[in-house]
Specification:
- It contains 13 helices and nine strands.
- The chain has about 350 residues and is of the alpha/beta class.
- The protein has one domain: Alpha-Beta Barrel (TIM Barrel).
- It has an eight-stranded parallel beta barrel, surrounded by four helices.
- The longest helix is centred in the middle third of the chain and has 20 residues.
- The chain is globular and about 60 Å long.
- One of its GO terms (biological process) is xylan catabolic process.
């Protein structure tokens, strides 16, 4: 069958995936192509680094940058004619900043030092890659889903507020990478229980527009959890989700699906049943998303169950392996693949 990117391109869209360099053993980190490289070549028109562009990967210390892993990844993509997006210039939560940044001594003028550190980071990355990276998740997950408020970090306390901090990240990115699509990326989703998270994201997006912060798109991560895709509950979920997306596009943001995968939490262990449910849920979700012409790029968070982050994050209670991605652990296509292809064809 034609690749997922080929079916996407027929509709003026693109399909891609996150990619990670895997350690070959627990002792030494070795730059190695994941075993699913053939899948990436075959199916994807765009890639994003799963971890290799985060501060924790790029910034071993306040004075050093380490580009070796992402450089190799970008070279691989370019050699295969695949585009690259960047993730992420600022994951604005203490938990995901490097330890040195949380313990950093900002000195006598914390604001100036905080701004210097952030501007240096964003500028160094953006200027190094220039037009080779076409989009950036400039800021990732700074809205607290529990109350819709904004997280703060040692960095934002030094700078004097989270809004000022994320604005500075975007303004610096725009100046250093004027060609790039600048994205705010978060995991608010259509499942019930996400209301406060969505409201907080809308407030943040409104603030960007009010202050003239250069943000082009909302990254809709799309780490989904199957709920059953018919019945009145599903309809309500779709109505609420559409209301959210309508509000986002009314503010003239584009949309990007940045990290799609689907967890089946409450289904019996029968693999055929689980895979069918995941495929149907994916299709229902993409049909809604594809009704928005503001959406062009669709990226999954890994092509194969073999490497999915979900297994380590939330194993199934019954111990059965997770199956949240497009290909199984032996790199065989699952019904989710056909669901995505069909959704593109119907778009
Ligand atoms: O590489 C080391 C390994 O050497 C060490 O033995 C092991 C022990 O903990 O850790 C390994 O690093 C882990 C790394 O993934 C690579 O596997 C980190 O602990 C772990 O925290 C890290 O998790 C990543 C997570 O972001 C945090 O950065 C996941 O792979 C990655 O899928 C996940 O991606 C995020 C997006 O960036 C933002 N949206 C949500 C998404 C899922 O959480």
């Amino acid at each position: 069958p034609p690749s997922l990117d080929t079916v996407a391109r027929a509709k003026g869209m693109r399909f891609g995936s996150a990619v990670a360099w895997r350690p070959r053993n627990s002792e030494a980190y070795e730059v190695a192509l994941p075993l699913d490289a053939a899948l990436l070549d075959r199916e994807c028109g765009i890639l994003v680094p799963e971890n290799e562009m985060k501060w924790v990967a790029l910034r071993p210390s306040p004075t050093r940058f380490s580009f070796v892993r992402f450089d190799a990844m970008l070279a691989y993509a370019e050699a295969n004619g695949i585009a690259m997006r960047g993730h992420t210039l600022l994951w604005h939560q203490p938990k995901w900043m490097p330890r040195w940044a949380n313990e950093y001594d900002f000195g006598a003028n914390p604001r100036a030092e905080g701004e210097r550190l952030l501007v240096e980071h964003v500028r160094t990355v953006c200027e190094r890659y220039g037009a080779r990276v076409g989009a950036y998740d400039v800021v990732n997950e700074t809205v607290n889903p529990a109350d819709g408020g904004l997280y703060d970090t040692a960095l934002s306390r030094a700078i004097g507020g989270t809004e000022a901090t994320v604005d500075l990240a975007f303004r610096t990115a725009r100046a250093a990478a004027p060609h790039a699509q600048l994205v705010y990326n978060d995991y608010m989703s259509w499942e019930p229980g996400n209301e406060r998270h969505r409201a907080g994201v809308l407030r943040l997006l409104e603030g960007f527009r009010r202050r003239g912060t250069p943000v082009d798109a909302l990254g809709v991560q799309s780490h989904l959890i199957t709920q059953g895709s018919d019945g009145p509950g599903a309809l309500q979920l779709q109505r609420d989700w559409r209301a959210f997306l309508d509000a986002v596009v009314a503010m003239e943001y584009k949309l990007v699906i940045t990290e799609l995968d689907v967890r089946d939490n409450n289904l019996p262990a029968d693999i055929a049943v689980r895979d069918r449910a995941v495929a149907d849920y994916t299709r229902a979700y993409l049909d809604v998303m594809f009704s928005y012409p503001q959406l062009r790029d669709v990226l999954v968070w890994g092509m194969s169950d073999r490497y999915s982050w979900i297994e380590g994050f939330e194993p199934r209670p019954d111990g059965a392996p997770r199956r949240p991605t497009v290909y199984d652990a032996q790199f065989r296509p699952k019904p989710m693949r056909a669901a995505i292809a069909d959704a593109f064809a119907a778009a």
